[in-house]
Amino acid sequence: MLAPGVVHCRFVRKDGQPLVFQPGQFIQVHFHYVDGSATKRSYSLATWQEPADGASPTLEIAVSYVPGGAATALFERLEIGDSLMASGPYGRFCLMPGDFNRRYLLIATGTGITPYRAMLPLLARAIAERGVEVVVLQGARSPAELLYADEFRAFADAHPGFRYLPCLSREGPLEPDTEVCRGYVQQQLPALLPDPRRDIAYLCGNPDMVDGAFQVLRAAGLSGAQIRREKYVSSR
């Protein structure tokens, strides 16, 4: 369990082959309702893979449990060694090879943080090779809901060009030396001084956050091409 109601799952392909994907892409898990009708759910890959490898032997995702949800029931009853059917990878919510920006603003709520975890090796290379700066602004209600926070803090400690900034909408205890802001991420975004001359922004998570942050960034002068979005909606 990553947080109350969020589980981290690790899978391997039954054929033993790695899954080649671009960080930021997602897979779709296929299953059936109790009445036999087919359905599917999308999950961004959280797998941390080195750029030189281009593939990983494991597939890692974060799953939000929704009370009464069909997908939740599927994942809750999984045991070690059980199998799922999935397809993919899909999506274009990825870092682009042609980017020449000076800073990335990576903004997320909930499990919207998972693509950024997968991007960390590519971001490390961008920091080293072209001196790019990276800010991860992660919104949550409490410290317990900051998914992968320890990993992002450790990455920030190891990479001076990387800043991890949690944003809490409710009060909660934190380590005394932890940098943190209060409120919603779209409210705190102006403090990062978005600048169309240097920034590319990624927005992933709650649709209200994505829409609100998009308006803030557009008001700051960023073009639509400088803002890349992916909305997460929890389905039953």
Considering the chains and any ligands shown, give keywords for the structure.
236 residues, alpha/beta, Elongation Factor Tu (Ef-tu), domain 3, Rossmann fold, 6-stranded parallel sheet, 11 strands, 29% strand
Describe it.
This protein is an alpha/beta fold and 236 residues long. It folds into 2 domains: 6-90, Translation factors (Elongation Factor Tu (Ef-tu), domain 3, Beta Barrel), CATH 2.40.30.10; 103-231, Rossmann fold (3-Layer(aba) Sandwich), CATH 3.40.50.80. It has 5 helices and 11 strands, in the order E-E-E-E-H-E-E-H-E-H-E-E-H-E-H-E. It has a 6-stranded parallel β-sheet, with helices on both faces. The protein has a 3-stranded antiparallel β-sheet with strand order 3-2-5, with no helix packed on it.
Secondary structure topology:
Elements: E1 6-11, E2 26-32, E3 38-44, E4 59-64, H1 70-76, E5 85-90, E6 103-109, H2 114-130, E7 133-140, H3 149-158, E8 162-168, E9 181-182, H4 185-188, E10 199-205, H5 207-219, E11 227-231
Helix and strand composition category? alpha/beta
How many individual domains?
A: 2
What's the average pLDDT? 92
Strand content: 25-35%
Runs with pLDDT <50, length 5+? none
In short:
By secondary structure, this protein is α/β, with parallel strands linked by helices. The protein has helices spanning about 70-75, 115-130, 150-160, 185-190, 205-220; strands at about 5-10, 25-30, 40-45, 60-65, 85-90, 105-110, 135-140, 160-170, 180, 200-205, 225-230. The protein has a six-stranded parallel β-sheet with strand order 9-8-7-6-10-11, with helices on both faces.
